[in-house]
Amino acid sequence: MIQFFAPDIASSPELPESDSRHAVRVLRMREGDELQVIDGHGNAYRCRLADAHPKHASVEILSVSPMPLPWSQQLAVAVAPTKHLDRMEWLVEKMTEVGVNTIIPLLCDRSERREIKTERLEKIAVAAMKQSLKATLPTVMPMTPLREVAAMMPGAQRLMAYCDPDIPRRDFTQVYRPGLDTLILIGPEGDFSPQEIRLALDSGFSPVTLGNNRLRTETAALYALSACHILDQSSAAPES
Q1: Considering the chain, what is the average pLDDT of its residues?
Q2: CA neighbours closer than 13 Å in the CB half-sphere of residue 54
């Protein structure tokens, strides 16, 4: 199933130019053809193509139905962007496919990249949302200093993964509690500074390790997010 994205479809039943071109030029859809449009807010619209214009195709809404995410809690990952932007773009794509509510580019003392354009990351998230058959677009925040992130989601379980062996850590799978709102911190490839670790721990973050392997920043973020979903599904599975 191919999904089209129009965030304002409820008030303006028209596809954006990129989706209009894909429907009319690539898929050769014509007036009267039915298609599914998502709004990024958790709703799916069954529509009929009313005007097959290649730049601003309009649709007639036939019905709308909720299309909730398959998990109920809020999952947020704050990760220091990598030096090479293509690796951060890959991470946004994969986290959206796996399932995330909020992506926070994290500014740290040892960050290799200190600026980032969220517009490009948002476009990648839209494409990944459509490809993975979701109707809710994750929020991609601007670059945010660690001190600000440390104050976010105070009622959630908050986990900080780092490599410093001198500070006691527990395995992620032993600390994570399935089904709860979760904020995960992943630092740059130079790791968090000792001052940042102390700040996070003083703010209530639990220190965790992702295992004995050395992971790249983007690998660690995807590993932790995937572990959340696996542990959630394992806890919900009926015993045989």
Answers
A1: 94
A2: 5
